[in-house]
Amino acid sequence: MNADTPTASDERPAQVPTQAYGVGDTSFRAAGGVSGLRRLVEDFYQLMDTLPEAATIRAMHPDDITEAADKLHRFLCGWLGGPRLYREKYGAIHIPAAHAHLDIGAAERDAWLHCMAAALARQDYSQDFRDYLLRELFRPAEGCRRAARRARALDSDAS
Ligand code: HEM
Q1: Whether residue 109 has its Cβ less than 6 Å from ligand 1
Q2: Is 118 a pocket residue for ligand 1 (Cβ < 6 Å)?
Q3: What pLDDT score does 4 carry?
Q4: Rounded distance, CA 151 to CA 62, Å?
Q5: Nearest to 9 by CA among 32, 27, 38, 42
Q6: Hey, whose CA ends up nearest to atom 20 of ligand 1?
Q7: Contact 38/50 with Cβ under 8 angstroms?
Q8: Domain ranges for the chain
Q9: pTM of the shown model
Q10: Where are the alpha helices (DSSP H) in 51-126?
């Protein structure tokens, strides 16, 4: 193999043309693989701990964020086309359903995305990839908001 050929184990962020993100494991590699995504998730939760606009969503999590960070990290590896580490350890997951019990409205969704945008800004990623990832993450984040809203509507029907 040519020394320049990227591999799935290549942990340095890969520079990929925008249209190729989402194909195979290109996004996973652009995110720096397992270790790059670990740094992203560490920064994400560190920012959630400190940004005032994230206080409400931080309070939804347990004090010890270790397991939540492990879960998000493993999920993102598979979601971006890398190894399915979440499934390996915790089984199948449907992101909106996993959040339906939480009180997530537009403000909470946007606070989550704000932490992610700030964490992305700290990574050694191309601006193209940061923009792409944030756009893609809007979908599951909005799915969480809708699932939470539906669950609350059902709750109020029952009372
Ligand atoms: C929309 C705003 C969001 C809020 C407020 C939020 C908040 C939370 C909270 C409070 C937990 C539970 C932590 C615990 O009890 O250990 C959690 C779990 C989790 N979140 Fe989110 N989250 C949001 C969006 C997302 C998105 C967009 C993703 C994926 C791209 C994601 C991935 C996960 C995963 C994988 C778990 C673990 C679920 C499980 O194993 O049951 N979250 N989230």
Answers
A1: yes
A2: no
A3: 43
A4: 21
A5: 32
A6: 72
A7: no
A8: 24-158
A9: 0.91
A10: 55-60, 66-79, 85-90, 95-99, 106-121
Provide φ and ψ at 10, rounded to 5°: -65, 115
Rounded Cα–Cα distance for residues 56 and 67 (Å): 19
The dihedral through the CA atoms of 39, 115, 21, 85 has a sign that is positive
Q: How far is CA 1 from CA 7, 12, 28, 57, 144, in A?
A: 10, 18, 20, 46, 43
Rounded mean pLDDT, 61-89: 98
Mean pLDDT of the chain: 92
Q: How many angstroms is it from 72 CA to the middle of ligand 1?
A: 7
Distances (CA, A) of 158 to 7, 90, 102, 151: 53, 31, 18, 11
Confidence of residue 2 (pLDDT cuts 50, 70, 90): very low
Tell me, using a 6 A CB cutoff, whether residue 62 lines ligand 1: yes
Three-state DSSP state, 93: coil
Under CATH, to which class is 24-158 assigned?
A: mainly alpha
pLDDT digits (tens, 9 = 90+) for 126-148: 999 999 999 999 999 999 999 99
Instruction: Give per-residue pLDDT as tens, 13-38.
Output: 877 776 689 899 999 999 999 999 99
